[in-house]
Amino acid sequence: MLGEHRGIVLEITPFELHGVRYSDVSVKFEGTGAIDSARLGPEAVPDGLQPGDAVLAMRAANMIVSLRRPEP
Length: 72
What we know:
This protein has strands at about 5-15, 20-30, 35-40, 55-60, 65-70. By secondary structure, it is an all-beta fold.
């Protein structure tokens, strides 16, 4: 899977490591119902992201590398 895929945030757990804020995120993808998790840095997660939010997940080599909110 390469490219952006629509999904819903199931879980997000922010934490700080060596002064940098990371987030463990679980996303359920539309269409397939597949669930994937990732540990992402602050540049890859929109501010204020909450469970239930719709996202576009950029995937590379079957891994989530960033999330963004879809355009209205």
